[in-house]
Write a structure and sequence with these properties.
CATH topology of the largest domain in chain B: Rossmann fold
Number of helices of chain A: 11
Number of helices of chain B: 8
Structural class of chain A: mainly alpha
Shape of chain B: elongated
Helix content of chain B: 10-25%
Radius of gyration of chain B: 27 Å
CATH class of the largest domain in chain B: Alpha Beta
Oligomer: heterodimer
Distance between the termini of chain A: 21 Å
Helix content of chain A: over 70%
CATH superfamily of the largest domain in chain B: P-loop containing nucleotide triphosphate hydrolases
Strand content of chain B: 35-45%
Order of helices and strands of chain B: EHEEHEEHHHEHEHEEHEEEEEEEEEE
Strand content of chain A: under 5%
Structural class of chain B: alpha/beta
Number of strands of chain A: 0
Distance between the termini of chain B: 20 Å
Largest interface: A-B, 31 and 35 residues
Chain lengths: ~260, ~400
Amino acid sequence: MTDWNISRLRLLMESLVSKDLKVRYKRSVLGFGWFLLKPLFSMIVYYFAFTRILRFGGAIPHFSLFLLTGLLPWNFFSSSLSATTSSLLDNHRLIRSIHFPRMCLPVAEVLANLIHLLLALVVLEAVLIIFGHTPGLSIILLIPAILLFTVMTIGAGMLLSIGNVFYRDVKQFVEVLLLAWFYASPIIYPLDSIGVQIIESPGLLQILRFNPVAGFMEIMHSILYTGTWPAAWCWISLSAWSVVFLILGSVVFRKAEPVVVKEL
Amino acid sequence: MKPGAIQMENVSLAYRLYHDRAVTLRDTMLNLFNRSTKMELFTALEGVTFSVEPGEALAVIGANGAGKSTTLKLLAGIYEPSSGITETGGRIASLLDLGVGFHPDLTGEENLMLNGSLIGLNRNAMKNLIPEIAEFAELTRFMDTPVKYYSDGMFMRLGFSLATAVDPDILLIDEVLAVGDARFQEKCYERIWDFRKNGKTIIFVSHDMNAVAKLCTRAIWLNDGRIQMDGEVEAVLSGYLEGVRKKHDVATVSPKEWGTREVWFDSVTLRNVSGTPARIFRKGEKIIVDAVIKTHLPGTVDGVVSGFSLHRPDGETIIGTNNLEMNEPLLSFNESTEISIEIMLDVEEPGSYILGLALTDPLARKDYHWLEFFYPITLLDARIDPPLRLSNVTWKQC
């Protein structure tokens, strides 16, 4: 077997990621601009829905900016999961004719989306500063937080990519799951990160904290929107879920890989 | 492991075979209550053991589903054996499917750059190789065209050029050489020949017995996942073709023997020029039929006509002639006489044929002895000589 050392692996990852980015914006006029436009459009929609129709957004100053600090990471998460779910199935010919570490396929999807997230965050940060949301010292925690969240996304993605090979329902299920997950996560509302109490029931608040993405969303609100230090529970939740998903994802992937190759 | 060496030891591989495959969760739930779904283990390979020395050219032949492609996928590292050990040394290039990593929206050049990493080429190496790859594929002008506008042939050509651009120690080829037109196919074979000349190991899976005979020195015949025969290409091919013939043609053509037996073939041997008994003959090789003919008629029987015929496996007669027709001397026999018929054929379509022999009197009133459809033979294309050359050898005292 051809051996796959670290440098070859890195090369493969680079290629897969850049292929993903190239393909995504082929024949599109706005091209790379979409990584900004997409969250911007959804921000506008949610802004009107939750300040003009439902009105709770009015309690949060600069609600649109607050929305963006959650929407960008959520977009990363949901696009990554959708893409990883079909990553093995879409590449079945490749998998069945060339030997390479198949784990690279879901990982590359997540990394391509991560690049979008990072670029969008740079732009968002500039806008935030313009509107007076100067970051505090806590911004140094942004990178470790994103790193942990990426690890979690990769773990979940690996699980879904394997699941979808055995049951095509997984893809449909993920779509529905993401819709429910969005509203269950502190994206359009905060839990306790910005000093505005939207969720009044302490019991519900407690339950919502168990959501694997809640910790990261609250960290993003704290760091970007208010410029404060994120609460300890956020870090515990984020780290714990990252470890759980990574271990679960990689163990399942490794175990299932030889079977999956024959099932594809 | 030495680069280019291959070792398979007692390798088995089983697939799960679904007769009523549950592809959705709903089906699975239903199946929980109604356990009628049959899941069977299908053994694609069983107890396969062989080893290949660096520089050998090995063909894997067998019927569809015999496990040929599975063997290649195991060697390529795509499958893991269910039991047993597969080991390979050095870098492998696999031509199992061409152009698989190509994305239709990307141009030829972009695809090459992005897929080089799959076969282990870094960006600089790839950049340097692109002109060469494009030229070999005859697509230099189309390098900036998205590959979705390529014809199938162009697509495959680019895939072939890329897959063989690396310098592998082992080349795995699975029936992909039906690439492009005849001329390009020729070019592909040439490149594969170059690999052979440079002492690379080649594992070749094909149904094209001609290509196999041309390229390989050794063959393995797989039958239902087991090795039926392993040896020199000629021997294995004839064994295989004979096996196929027995399986399919017995119903239509079986050896027939009749005649008055006043004069008869007592023994018949088919051999080549060097005197070895043979059933496989290459293009340009003489087929020599040695026969001992006996008679119990008193004295000498004069003016005997000796004929032969060649048939396709289904019985269709292609050639039938005799010494009378060919203006050769008629034969005379006494109690025991040895004759030899030397047949030289122009082989246009290599394959399996059946030879028949006959002894009659010149007026065809009497059939002395007919052996119809008696001797299956295999005719192959000419051998390329020399199949390999010594490029370097050293002796060292350690």
